[in-house]
From TrEMBL:
InterPro entries: Aerotolerance_reg_N, UPF0353/GerABKA_families, VWF_A, vWFA_dom_sf. It comes from Neolewinella maritima. It holds the Pfam family BatA. Residues 91-291 form the VWFA domain. This is VWFA domain-containing protein. Coiled coil: none annotated. SUPFAM superfamilies: vWA-like. Keywords: Cell membrane, Membrane, Transmembrane, Transmembrane helix. Gene3D superfamilies: von Willebrand factor, type A domain.
């Protein structure tokens, strides 16, 4: 199969007739100026040894080299062979907590910022698998379906924030149930769920939901962000002033990370708990080591053709023509 790697450069071929036209215009102007200066027969005496045909020869060489250079730049290619690549991996969903409690700044710059940065790092580390993203508060939404478009997945993570789901509170059990429903039935025993949260749970049924999902072949890992102990949740008001999430009594509401809940979910889900307290890259690698233990499934077979480039078929004669042109003088005998 033939193709041109950079077809956009073929538009430069319009330069060939333009350059030819400009040269003809220049030559006529030059000829007219010489005719005004002296008779053509007299010019042979005034400029002895000048080869009148040589400029046309040199220009012809330059003009012939121009399309060859353009074709070399476009790089014609021919398919050498068709290859098939089989991709193996698992289906994996990252559930990211975007409840108001993630606004707490007990870890810097905030729980939400730390969770977003870690999740982006994790997606890069787990490339090769089908990855989806679920955002949750007291309800859960699959914001990125299982895909290999990792740039899209990371864009969903980078903009994740509490305002995206108006109903607030945290229901980890709901997050597990929604994620479980998003998996393909064929991926049983080849799937994992990674929950990134501060662990606050207003329902209390998350461990039971994790156990049920694990019985259906889902492994659940949890990543805890935040510290135990009361922390306020700052918000930015429309007038630019900073305030805090308020409790029903009017005072600032308080939040505390709950490591124990996340540990229970991971244990019931057959996975492991990790604390997001150190380097994100090292933690992502640790999670990758856990995920790599899961039996891989074979995804679709991708076929592609490898191409050999033949730009040198055009570049070599173009360079030769230019060398010949450069070697020609302007006077007879040069």
């Amino acid at each position: 199969m033939f193709r041109v790697e950079h077809p956009e450069y073929l538009w430069l071929l319009v330069l060939v007739p333009l350059v030819a036209g400009l040269f003809l215009w220049y030559w006529r102007q030059r000829r007219a100026a010489l005719d005004r200066f002296a008779d053509r027969e007299l010019l042979d005496y005034l400029a002895p040894g000048v080869n009148r045909r040589l400029p046309w020869t040199k220009f012809g060489l330059l003009l012939a080299s121009l399309p060859l250079l353009i074709l070399a730049l476009a790089n014609p290619q021919w398919s050498a062979q068709r290859e098939e690549m089989k991709r193996r991996g698992i289906d994996l969903i990252v559930a990211l907590d975007i409840s108001n409690s993630m606004l707490a700044e007990d870890v810097k710059p905030s729980r939400m910022d730390r969770a977003r940065f870690f999740t982006t790092t994790l997606i890069d580390e787990l490339a090769g698998n089908n990855i989806g993203v679920e955002l949750f508060t007291c309800t859960a939404v699959m914001s990125a379906p299982l895909t290999t478009d990792y740039n899209f997945v990371k864009s969903v993570v980078s903009t994740a924030a509490p305002y995206q789901i108006s109903a607030q509170g945290t229901n980890l059990g709901e997050a597990i149930t929604v994620a479980e429903a998003a998996f393909d039935e064929k991926s049983a025993n080849h799937r994992a769920l990674i929950i990134v949260s501060d662990g606050e749970d207003h329902d209390g049924a998350a461990a039971a939901a994790a156990a049920r999902a694990n019985a259906q072949g889902l492994l659940i890992y949890t990543v805890g962000v935040g510290k135990s102990g009361a922390s306020m949740m700052p918000i930015q008001l429309n007038n630019g002033r900073q305030d805090y999430i308020r409790a029903s009594g009017g005072g600032p509401a308080m939040t505390s990370a709950d490591q124990a809940t996340l540990e229970d979910i991971a244990t019931s889900g057959g996975g492991a708990y990790f604390a997001l307290s150190g380097d994100s890259e090292n933690l992502a690698q640790a999670l990758r080591a856990q995920v790599d233990r899961i039996e891989k499934q074979e995804f679709e077979t991708q076929s592609f053709s490898s191409y050999d480039s033949y730009f040198y078929w055009f570049l070599a004669p173009a360079v030769l023509l230019l060398l010949v042109e450069f070697g020609l003088g302007w006077r007879a005998g040069e």
